[in-house]
Specification:
The protein has one domain. Helix content is about 65%, strand content about 0%. With about 200 residues, the chain is mainly alpha-helical. Helix 2 packs across helix 5. The longest helix is centred in the last third of the chain and has 27 residues.
């Protein structure tokens, strides 16, 4: 019983990971590469485990929204509109999200091929530039890696802002309903656990 409580206790503090990641990225954009862990880990658990263990137990973002919206009472606690929980919206948002990731990858390739210079800016929705260049340390990473870091951090920050907005308007973990990684891992789990037809005898 004590061991189970201890495991639950440390998971409740995973929101710290979200805070540390974004603060490190503001200090130096090179730390944005650490965000790939949040991409790869849920996919690996879904592919090899056939479950959404990351979303259900280890997602730092979900714990962060639960802290702000639940424990600190910043959420209105209202139910989400039906269309935001619908399959078409979740799949459309996933396509949009990975479209932004494709844009980040394209910009990285252009810099790597010396077709363009590094765009050292953090952008929301890959369009709204945030002021300042305080997170860039020239020479620490190759130009292409720096470009990817800026783009990927922008993508992660965009998802955080969307999550905070829906947390404020609706229930604390509303982001989890339409999170693109959650939608993708759910698709993988359905395929992984799909009943196999009986072998022909």
């Amino acid at each position: 019983m004590k061991k189970a409580t201890a495991r639950k206790s440390w998971r409740n503090h995973l929101w710290i990971v979200t805070c540390v990641y974004f603060l490190l990225g503001l200090y130096n954009i090179a730390f944005a590469w650490l965000g790939l862990i949040f991409f790869v880990t849920p996919l690996l658990l879904a592919i090899f485990g056939g479950n959404k263990a990351f979303c259900n137990q280890y997602c730092d973002r979900g714990r962060f929204f639960r802290l702000l919206g639940g424990q600190l009472g910043l959420s209105r606690g209202a139910p989400m509109p039906g269309w935001m929980k619908s399959g078409w919206f979740r799949y459309l948002f996933m396509a949009y999200f990975f479209g932004m990731f494709g844009s980040v990858s394209l910009a990285t390739w252009l810099v790597a091929s010396q077709a363009r210079a590094v765009d050292g800016a953090i952008k929301l929705f890959q369009a709204l530039r945030l002021p300042g260049d305080w997170s860039y340390s020239a020479g620490l990473l190759p130009p292409w890696a720096t470009q990817f870091a800026f783009g990927f951090y922008s993508l992660m920050l965009t998802s955080l802002v969307l999550g905070i907005v829906t947390m404020l308007l609706f229930k604390p973990r509303s982001w989890c309903v339409y999170c693109p990684m959650g939608t993708l891992t759910q698709m993988i789990c359905k395929l992984k656990n799909k009943p196999q037809p009986p072998a022909a005898g």
